[in-house]
Structure to design on (212 residues):
């Protein structure tokens, strides 16, 4: 006779965390399918199999839920990518190519989330008065990229053509623009284009040339 399995018992905090995770996953799907403006919290609740009250007990507004989706599903993984780039061995040219490849692979694996992140930029541009927290998170993300750029510039004794903060903006805009073009016209964008543009942006020498 087999012993009956004991039902899983969760604390109040664990239940809240599970509900929050369900809502974020559902919202990611709804926002990606419908866009931010067209999506509703009713749709998110239905997608998650929860009530609208559960949505409001975890998030004050659609904007806050959208922010949580972007942070959990895109910003955090992107930060892990940034940290991984710092550990890449080889020349700066090789690191530029590897970093570009890493970003390209992430976009290919999370296509809808990438488009959702782009929609965030559009939303902020259209509603700057309602998106201050989104701007704050965006600047924090750029700040981490700027720190990495400054650290690598010191490590490799490579002067930057622009301040690290401005370089981070350029890298972000370049990466998103190239990958959006790739999604629209996959056969028209060379696989190594982003890496070569990184190298040009940072004024890196070609492979085999001295970096000192």
């Amino acid at each position: 006779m087999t012993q009956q399995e004991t039902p899983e018992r969760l604390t109040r905090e664990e239940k809240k965390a599970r509900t929050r995770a369900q809502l974020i996953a559902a919202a990611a799907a709804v926002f990606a399918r419908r866009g931010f403006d067209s999506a509703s919290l009713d749709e998110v609740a239905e997608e998650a199999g929860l009530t609208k009250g559960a949505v409001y007990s975890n998030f004050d507004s659609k904007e806050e839920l959208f922010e949580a989706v972007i942070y959990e599903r895109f910003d955090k993984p992107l930060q892990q990518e940034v940290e991984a780039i710092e550990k890449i061995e080889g020349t700066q040219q090789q690191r530029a190519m590897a970093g570009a490849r890493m970003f390209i692979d992430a976009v290919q694996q999370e296509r809808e989330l990438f488009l959702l992140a782009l929609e965030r930029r559009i939303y902020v541009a259209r509603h700057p008065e309602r998106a201050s927290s989104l701007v704050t998170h965006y600047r924090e993300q750029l700040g981490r990229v700027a720190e990495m750029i400054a650290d690598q510039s010191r490590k490799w004794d490579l002067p930057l053509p622009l301040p690290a903060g401005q370089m981070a903006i350029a890298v972000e805009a370049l990466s998103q623009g190239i990958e959006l073009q790739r999604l629209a016209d996959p056969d028209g964008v060379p696989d190594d284009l982003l890496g070569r543009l990184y190298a040009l942006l940072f004024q890196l020498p070609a492979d085999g040339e001295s970096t000192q």
Remarks:
- Residues 62-86 form the longest helix (25 residues).
- Confidence is low (pLDDT under 50) at residues 208-212.
- The chain is about 70% helix and 0% strand.
- Residues 97 and 192 are 7 Å apart (CA to CA).
